[in-house]
Design a protein that fits this description.
Elements lengths: L5 H10 L2 H16 L4 E4 L5 E3 H16 L6 H9 L2
Antiparallel strand pairs: 1-2
Amino acid sequence: MKQASLENVYSEIMLLPEIDRQLLYSRMQKELFQDKEIVAYTTTGLPLTRKQYIEKIERAISEVDGGELITDEELEKEIATW
């Protein structure tokens, strides 16, 4: 398959109806900036990007898989010392 030049891609995009160009632009923008989008907050209120949020989830899964967890009773004892 022949690789399209930037000019050809631009020409093809400009031939699209306006609504399709807007949709394409929105999809490109979402793809380009999804790692910067705030999707959650920590318990202390710090914002997390999609990438950071996924990393935290993966780390938590890894800790559970590795047996790094405590029982409810252990947690209750720890909380009592706060």
